[in-house]
Amino acid sequence: MTEVKGLLVMDVDSTLIREEGIDLLGEAAGIGKEIAAITEQAMRGELDFRQALAERVALLEGQPESLLTQILPQLHFTSGAEALVTELHSRGYKIGAVSGGFHETVDILAERIGLDYVKANRLESQNGFLTGRISGEIVTKDVKAAQLRTWAAENGLPLSRTIAVGDGANDLLMLQTAGIGIAFCAKPIVREQAAYHIDEADLYKVIDILDEVNR
């Protein structure tokens, strides 16, 4: 069995992909402005993530499940994402995504780009329609940090050999837990508190930071 050399864990919305998935769900449902306003507050750390998620998901009650796949053509990987995944795999890294978004779309994105792990929320539905609730555990900042620890432990890695990348307040604890925590085109509250930051929308710059740290 090949030794795993390290672990990268990324946020999804506005990090692995350019868009905020839940905002696109809102637009498809005709309530885009209402949902985007709550998203912005949560990203700035003005609203507790759990509360913000519950408010946004409640607005989707009665929408068809098909909304989740309907938005897939509008989701685009951030510049450098594919190259980053390819390069880190070649270096013996495992790569995971932890998302406040939803398995129904994130799993498809993860398969497309070749990620090893995924942790996200799951929307509850009945008879093909969304209930306005989350099914199971909600991916909070604590869950994101815990998932980083879990995946590292599964691979026998110390936290010093982990990298975390994210942009919002919900990612901050994960960034502070990882050996290398990178704020990516992040909100001020995140950029100020993360050890490293990338201010250009190019995920491959993670490699520059990794190489600098290991030099």
Keywords:
20% strand, globular, serine biosynthesis, Rossmann fold, magnesium ion binding, 10 helices, alpha/beta, 215 residues, 8 strands, HAD-like_sf
Structural account:
The chain has a single domain, classed as HAD superfamily/HAD-like (Rossmann fold). It contains 10 helices and 8 strands. The chain has helices at residues 21-28, 32-43, 49-59, 67-70, 81-90, 103-113, 141-154, 172-177, 188-193, 205-214; strands at 6-10, 93-102, 117-121, 123-126, 129-134, 162-166, 180-184, 196-198. Helix 1 (21-28) runs antiparallel to helix 2 (32-43) and helix 2 runs antiparallel to helix 3. The longest helix is centred in the C-terminal third of the chain and has 14 residues, at 141-154. The mean pLDDT is 95.
What's the quick description here?
The chain is an alpha/beta fold and 215 residues long. The protein has one domain: HAD superfamily/HAD-like (Rossmann fold, 3-Layer(aba) Sandwich), CATH 3.40.50.1000.
